[in-house]
Amino acid sequence: MDIDARGPRFGAAVTTVVLAVVLISGNAWLLAWQTLAFALGAAGGVGRSPYGWVFRKVVRPRIGPPTEFEAPEPPRFAQAVGLLFAGVGAVGLTLGPDWLGLAATGAALAAAFLNAAFGYCLGCEMYLLVRRVAVRAE
After folding, report:
1. Rounded distance, CA 92 to CA 86, Å?
2. Residue-wise pLDDT tens digits, 109-132
3. Do 116 and 8 contact (CB within 8 A), yes or no?
4. CA-to-CA distance for 70 and 76, rounded, in angstroms?
5. Which residues are within 8 A (CB) of 104 and not within 5 positions of it... i.e. 6 or more apart?
6. Does residue 68 register a pLDDT over 90?
7. 103 CA to centre of own chain
8. Which residues is 4 bridged to in the sheet?
């Protein structure tokens, strides 16, 4: 079942703010929260993430029904990629080296910003590329 395309973009906007605050403050606990949000989105789909819940319960009722839909698999894969980067970032910020935490968090921030501002989902594009390569390998 396809999902409202505005939901992942809303989640990316919130993620952008959270990750920017992490980079400014170096707050590993806030990055741990974002890592959990990515984990929930990767495990259950973007609708199961905290930001997906807020979108579904608070935002969507105020902006009306969706007019554009997308398959749920690419955004879910993107959440898994975000989980990987946020996890590495959390390790770097808590155990070191700090540069690793900042670099991984910065990469996740860049990807979230591209999705939020321009609707370009790097993780979704990675998913499609992996699918194409897998089909050719068969």
Report:
1. 10
2. 999 999 999 999 999 999 999 999
3. no
4. 11
5. 85, 86, 88, 89, 92
6. yes
7. 16
8. 69
Q: How far apart are the first and last CA of the chain?
A: 26
Length of the chain: 138
Positive or negative CA dihedral for 35, 39, 40, 45?
A: positive
In this structure, how many other beta carbons lie within 10 angstroms of the beta carbon of residue 63?
11
- Could you tell me which of 53, 56, 49 has the C-alpha nearest to residue 83? 49
Of 90, 89, 115, residue with least CA distance to 103: 89
Angle between helices 28-44 and 6-25 (to 10 degrees): 160
Report which residue type is found at 46.
V
**Token digits of residue 97:** 């080296």
Query: What pTM, to 2 d.p., does this model score?
Result: 0.95
